[in-house]
Amino acid sequence: MKRLIQIALGLALVAALCAPAMAKKLVVAHDTNFKPFEFKGEDGKYTGFDIELWQAVAKIVGVEYELQPMDFNGIIPGLQTGNIDVGIAGITIKAERQQVIDFSDPYYDSGLMILVREGDTAIKSVEDLKGKIVATKTATSSVDFVKACASAKEVKLFPNNDGMFFELMSGGADAVVFDMPVVKEFAMTAGKGKVKTVGPLYQGQSYGIGFPKGSPLVAKVNEALKKAKADGTYEKLYIKWFGYAPGK
Question: Which residue ranges does UniProt annotate as crossing the membrane (predicted)?
Fold first, then answer.
């Protein structure tokens, strides 16, 4: 009996040694509130364009993952240290960011837009922000734009969208400058009748999926994005979350 047990244990050990290694679950970081790209739904689970696009990409690539919500300003440092494997949070592809992380091909074309209170008639463009208090989100490209172009009296920075929108509606800021799809979505939903967008679209930008430098996932994800666009998956998700087809 003892001999049989030893043989069984030996066979089990050989099987374990010869079996393929278990694939690591990727840690995929996303913003906590960047509607309609990522936000917490009524069921308490995160959803949005980024979340569902990554779901489609991961299925094509054949990888398992777990979502890790975090403040936007922690995502790039997390990629740099390797604590997270993927960052998808409407991350603008910028030269300085490309020095410290790798990006996928662009998956969304955006830009910056000004949001003011409904009754405001003084602010119509970035030039009108001179001497004003402007709210925006920490560690985003909108911060650079406001500081370089707005001549604002003060720039108030917030870790999430809720903070900057509340600051505007409560009178603590004269305007919000932030990513066009997020600003427009807020103006049409929670801020409807209270705020409005003004002026043109500033600084055409592209969003990319972020990875640690040298990640082998970049090429695989780029191929998956191409496939998702070719088979209609991308367009279907785009229409679902933005209400119109890409390029329209």
Answer: none
